[in-house]
Amino acid sequence: QVQLVESGGGLVQAGGSLRLSCVASGRTFSDRAMGWFRQAPGKEREFVGAMSRSGISTYYADSVKGRFTISRDNAKNTVYLQMNSLKFEDTAVYYCAAAAAGASWAVAVGNPLAYESWGQGTQVTVSS
Fold first, then answer.
1. Which neighbouring-strand residues pair with 127?
2. How far is CA 24 from the centre of its chain?
3. What confidence score (pLDDT) does residue 128 get?
4. What residue ranges of the chain have pLDDT lower than 70?
5. In whole angstroms, how far apart are CA 95 and each of 78, 115, 128?
6. What does the pLDDT read at residue 103?
7. Which residues pair with residue 4 across a beta bridge?
8. Whose CB has fewer CB within 10 Å in the chain, the N or C terminal residue?
9. How far is CA 94 from the centre of its chain?
10. Closest CA to 37 of 127, 128, 115, 126
11. Burial, 90: exposed, middle or buried (Cβ in 10 Å; 0-12, 13-18, 19+)?
12. Torsion over CA of 124, 96, 81 and 6, rounded to 10 degrees?
């Protein structure tokens, strides 16, 4: 497993932007698909998007497609979530997660059980 630490959350007005970062410890970051999830109060954890190990492939939930972008820098062991055109309903705690090293990219899309390491979460609050 790897240790994950998110940062970049905060309070933003609707229509604004935030960029979340997630730094991973260890030497296997580049061997892992990375995902972002979120959980709003009273709701289940929701898949936001994921990126393959190489960074070539990405997949987004319909609710964020066209507004959110995932990127990664394997040299820095970091994955990012750029969030634009934020809406009130994007308010949630955001978590990054790392799939098992070498796991299939297809398994990592949308499936929280494919992820073996989770960050502590960072709060994103969008004011209307």
1. 13
2. 12
3. 87
4. none
5. 13, 11, 23
6. 84
7. 24
8. C
9. 7
10. 115
11. buried
12. 60
User: Is 11 in contact with 23 (CB distance < 8 Å)?
Assistant: no
* CA–CA–CA angle 123, 56, 121 (5° rounding): 15
Q: Is 103 exposed, middle or buried (0-12, 13-18, 19+ CB in 10 A)?
A: middle
Q: Give the DSSP per-residue string, 55-120.
A: SS-EEE-TTTTTTEEEEEEGGGTEEEEEE-S--GGG-EEEEEEEEPTT--HHHHSS-GGGEEEE--
**At 18, is the secondary structure helix, strand, or coil?**
strand
Please check whether residue 83 is in contact with residue 90, taking contact to mean a CB–CB distance below 8 angstroms: yes
Pairing of strands 18-24, 78-83: antiparallel
Q: Which of 119, 116, 118, 87 is nearest to 8 (CA)?
A: 119
- C-beta separation of 96 from 119 below 8 A: yes
